[in-house]
Amino acid sequence: MGEWGVSLLLQFFPDTWVIFNNALVPTNSGSLTEIDHLIIGEGGVFLVEVKTWKGSFSAYKDKWKRRVGNNWVAVYDSPTSQSLYHQKMFSQWIISLISNLPDGFVVAPVVFPIAKWIGANDCSVPVLQGIPALLQMINNSRDCLTPMQVQGIAQAIENFTLPTNTTPTPKPIPKPKPVKRQNHTS
Prior knowledge:
With about 190 residues, this protein is of the alpha/beta class. It has helices at about 1-10, 80-95, 130-140, 145-160; strands at about 20-25, 30-40, 45-50, 55-60, 65-70, 70-75, 105, 110, 115-120, 125-130.
């Protein structure tokens, strides 16, 4: 629901911007990673990770906690670490395809559209509470890409084809059947 809401709001960008929802990007290990919203414009490339988490959350240096009653409980899947990984994989991939891209043109914010409270300090990527904060960040970005670079990046994403699996998929092992034991009496 949160991702859908973000994609609706992003329709208000100028026609020169390109938006991909649930974009698949190759990783250096040969697998794929999925980016909720990949937004490309003269202001840069924005890899938006949407977390529709309810409640209150805090983070320090990519270590996340959520509030449960009066306690703070560790969250093991760090959304900022995930976004940093997306940023690294996308940057490596696109730079291998398109030369002369500027430093820092890829930003990977994490957006919490429905969280009650977010307190994030010293995280590796921007943490934003609400869609207006995301739109403001994108609108305030300085132009760093030419229209040709925007088009080239968008074409690279559009033309990306999923690798074909050359190794056969193993068949699942059948679940073992229980062995009935007979009760022997001596």
